[in-house]
Each structure stands twice: as C-alpha cells, then as structure tokens.
C-alpha cells in the first residue's frame, strides 16, 4: 500500500462538519486505511475574493491501494458530496482536499502535481502535517515535513525572485511591507571580459547589498532578485583564487539562506522554468506561471502571505 498525506480545509458553512465528513468518507472506502488525523487549526483565508471567512485546516495520513488519479477522483467526489461547486480560484468553499505527498512519487500534469507544488510555502498545510507526518520527506527537495516547517518558522522572511516582471518587485515589496534589495550586478555597466574572469570584488557587491540591508533583523522581510549562492553567483566558483573558498564560506555562513525562491515564468516563454539540480536543496522553491502583471502580483502575494503565522488551534 502507498503512504499518502492529504490536506483538508473548509471556510464555508459548518466547517467542522465538512472536515469530519471528509475524514469519515475516506475511512469508509475499502481501499483507504486511515493512520492519523491532525488537530484542526484556524487560519485566515489567503487570495481570492475579499470578505471570506477563516479556514479550518487539518491533515490526514492514509495508506491506500488506489492510484494517485483514483485517489484524486475520490477526493473530488467527497468534495462534491459536501456541496463544493466550480468557483473562482481561491474562492470560499465548504471543502477542499489536496493530495500533498504520495510515497516519493513525482508527477506533473494538468490534472495532478505531486508533491503538491505549494507545500514548502503553505504554513496552513505544514503546521497540521507536522503533527502526524513530521518525518515524511519531500521527494524533490529531500527535506522532511518538520524541516520545512522549522525553516518556514524562522523569524527572517528572505524571499528571492527569479524570472520576468522584475520591474514590479519594488511595488510588490511596498504592497507587502517588505524591504526591496535589487541585484547590484544588474545596476552597473557590464565589466570588460568574460564574467568568469572578474575579480572577487565584482561579486562582493552582492554580499555587501545583503549585509547592509535590514534583512538580518528579526521580523524583517525582504524581497530580492538574488542571494549569494544564486546564479550567476555560482560562476564565481570557477575563479582561480586561493582566497575564494574561505571567503565564500565565511560570507555565506553570515547570511541566512532564503526562506523561498519564487521561480516565475510567463505563459509564452521558458524564463524561470528550469528547476535546480537534483539532490538536497539549500532552500525550497515554488514555480509560478503568470500570464499578466496582475496575475504575477496575485500569485506572488499569495505565496508570500501563505508563509505567515496566522493559525490558532481549535
């Protein structure tokens, strides 16, 4: 049998009833065995139409003989049984069931994505999940549920953005009450010669930009176009300098890794679509596709706000 983590939420009608009915429906299915159910947590709604009620969220760990697509079909049937109807994205709903993890399977289709692409950024998923599945691991990042939750709970909120719409970052940072730190390498004339032949001082500006910003103060948030280990920084590792390895180690250790990389692309280009190399990652990322400036603002704002601590136990 396969081990699966599901996230349940409700912010319309009798929320407790909808969640309880969903758990019972899963338990009653012949091919699903319930292992654990988390405590319910109340969270503010994020994204979608304004004026929505707060969500009640829980997580459930199950074993099943169903395939991922059969399990998805079952959860959609349960949602409809609790009155869910097609609606605007992130609108209020009586029941929402998301497949988060299915063993170590990685799937990317229009109908189903595993692991759930927003898992690393959604506190309202990680906080109940850590109660029942703390040691389950993300098959792409190789981080446990507990490690992702602890990373998300760190006081600094340092978010790195890659992709189009970079001109919108200052306005977005102001809207989210964040500091904005532009990449100094994009704000100076191009140096002569190949980038791999530039002296360390050329790249030192990135360190300095972060170190003099207010990113290191608790409860301070920044949005940046870069971090010290983010390309094209890696190119600097090829520099023929005996001082570089020790300098890199000292500087990187002095800077908290980003809480998140938002990897964005537009619908008609591949910018930002490439995933980092396989293996354990230094920090999580999410991939977003934004077809317009407005969609970009909505998607990034929702990702950022999902990281905040707005939950309470029920």
Question: How does this structure look, described?
Answer:
The protein has 314 residues and is an alpha/beta fold. It folds into 2 domains: 2-153, 7,8-Dihydro-6-hydroxymethylpterin-pyrophosphokinase HPPK (Alpha-Beta Plaits, 2-Layer Sandwich), CATH 3.30.70.560; 157-313, Rossmann fold. The protein has 8 helices and 13 strands. The strands form 3 sheets. Strands 1, 2, 3, 4, 5 and 13 form a 6-stranded antiparallel sheet that branches.
Short synopsis of the structure:
The protein is 29% helix and 21% strand. It has 314 residues and is α/β, with parallel strands linked by helices.
Main attributes?
single chain, 314 residues, alpha/beta, Alpha-Beta Plaits, Rossmann fold, six-stranded antiparallel β-sheet, five-stranded parallel β-sheet, 13 strands
SSE topology:
Layout: E1 2-10, H1 15-28, E2 32-37, E3 41-43, E4 55-64, H2 68-81, E5 96-102, E6 107-108, E7 113-114, H3 123-132, H4 145-153, E8 157-162, H5 169-175, E9 179-181, H6 200-211, E10 221-224, H7 244-253, E11 260-265, E12 285-289, H8 293-306, E13 311-313
Parallel strand pairs: 8-10, 8-11, 9-10, 11-12
Antiparallel strand pairs: 1-4, 1-5, 2-4, 3-4, 3-13, 6-7
How many strand units?
A: 13
Large-scale geometry: globular
The biggest beta sheet reads: 6 strands, antiparallel
Total of helices: 8
Uncertain segments: 189-198, 230-242, 268-276
Gap from first CA to last CA: 32 Å
Helicity level = 25-40%
What is the chain-wise order of helices and strands?
Answer: EHEEEHEEEHHEHEHEHEEHE
Question: What oligomeric state do these chains adopt?
Answer: single chain
Please write the CATH class name of the largest domain: Alpha Beta
Tell me the strand percentage band: 15-25%
**Rg, Cα atoms, Å:** 21 Å
Say what the CATH topology of the largest domain is.
Rossmann fold
Mean pLDDT: 80
């Amino acid at each position: 049998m396969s081990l699966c983590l599901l996230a349940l939420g409700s912010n319309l009608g009798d929320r407790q009833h909808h969640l309880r009915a969903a758990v019972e429906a899963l338990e009653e299915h012949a091919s699903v065995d319930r292992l654990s159910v988390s405590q319910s947590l109340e969270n503010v709604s994020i994204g979608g139409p304004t004026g929505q009620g707060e969500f009640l969220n829980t997580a459930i760990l199950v074993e099943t003989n169903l395939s991922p697509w059969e399990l998805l079909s079952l959860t959609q049937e349960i949602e409809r049984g609790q009155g869910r109807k097609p609606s605007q994205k992130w609108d209020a709903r009586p029941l929402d069931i998301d497949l988060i993890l299915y063993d170590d399977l990685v799937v990317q289709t229009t109908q189903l994505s595993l692991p759930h692409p927003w898992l690393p950024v959604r506190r309202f998923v990680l906080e109940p999940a850590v109660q029942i599945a703390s040691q389950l691991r993300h098959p792409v990042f190789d981080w446990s549920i507990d490690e992702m939750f602890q990373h998300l709970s760190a006081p600094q909120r340092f978010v790195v953005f890659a992709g189009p719409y970079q001109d919108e970052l200052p306005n977005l940072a102001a809207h989210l009450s964040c500091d904005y730190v532009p990449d100094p390498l994009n704000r100076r004339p191009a140096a002569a010669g190949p980038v791999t032949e530039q002296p360390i001082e050329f790249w030192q500006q990135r360190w300095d930009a972060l170190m003099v910003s207010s990113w290191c103060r608790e409860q301070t948030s920044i949005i940046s176009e870069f971090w010290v280990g983010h390309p094209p920084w890696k190119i600097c590792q090829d520099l023929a300098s005996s001082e570089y390895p020790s300098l890199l180690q000292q500087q990187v250790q002095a800077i908290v890794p980003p809480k998140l990389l938002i990897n964005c692309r537009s619908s008609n280009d591949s910018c930002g679509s490439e995933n980092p190399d396989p293996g354990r990652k230094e920090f999580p990322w999410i991939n977003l596709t934004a077809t317009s400036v407005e969609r970009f603002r909505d998607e990034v704002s929702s990702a950022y706000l999902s990281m905040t601590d707005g939950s309470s136990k029920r």
